[in-house]
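Minutes, project huddle
Topic: does the predicted pose make sense with 3-methyl-2-oxobutanoic acid bound?
PN asked that the exact inputs be recorded in the minutes so nobody has to dig through chat later. Recorded below.
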Amino acid sequence: MITCYDYSSARAVADSNIDCILVGDSLAMTMHGYSNTLSATTAMMALHTAAVAKGAPGKFIIGDLPFLSYRKGLKEAMDAVHELMSAGANAVKLEGVRGHADIVRHIVDSGVPVMGHLGLTPQSVHGLGGMKVQARTNAAVKVLTSEARELEDAGCFALVLECVPRQGARRVTDLLRIPTIGIGAGTHVSGQVLVYQDVLGLNPGFKPKFLRVYANTFEVITTALNAYDGDVKSGAFPSESESYSDLESTNGKGAKRTEHAGKNGRASRITLASDMNH
Ligand code: KIV
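Predicted holo structure (tokens), as shared on screen:
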């Protein structure tokens, strides 16, 4: 699984072998520049989910329920679920279980698959005292396994385990029948998830222990932008072949454009689109 938040990135994921997409509330940070996920709203999540669904219609898309959206009561939770599912999600994800197992059950009973999320739950960053590795003691692993079981019993189809030592992740994975998806949880899980920007090196300076960066895209982009800037300033771009020529000298193409011209003399969008290559 990989996170994804926008249409053009979703097209790239759609072309990959990755099984499913999480439109995570981490978009508050990666796409909107906030310092944590608490600023994500249901409206933001729905907008990004809709864009991803258009770019990757064939992938299984999980929409993240944002901060407090499932803690204000059943109606509010179901309204948020409704928005994400209407935007194109195939399932929703929520963090923790204490105090909202009934809501998880209700969402599942409504026909909406729910993914759980335990370990480091970023929506509780202030309660946890920061973004820290969780379940480092036997007692904490006991709580983790019991909460994992509770989520499975409530009907979750899968469980994200974030930033927990691999021994604890293994214990949870061995205990459950549903798959576990790890991020910073070692290898003894059923699958992995990483953030798109992190995998592609778009978040320079972010180097947690669990991350493997697969491309230096930030550098690729700045190099390309500087090449473009240099070409414009030196006059090397655009060249003649990258410029349109006069209508009369286009070998009939200009005439075609006139044929398709609308009432007000402007070419139709379709004609323009096909003309744009010549
Ligand atoms: O919001 C998110 O991106 C997530 C993943 C890190 C699991 O919850």
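Observations noted during the meeting:
- The chain is about 40% helix and 10% strand.
- The longest helix spans residues 217-234.
No decisions taken; revisit at the next huddle.
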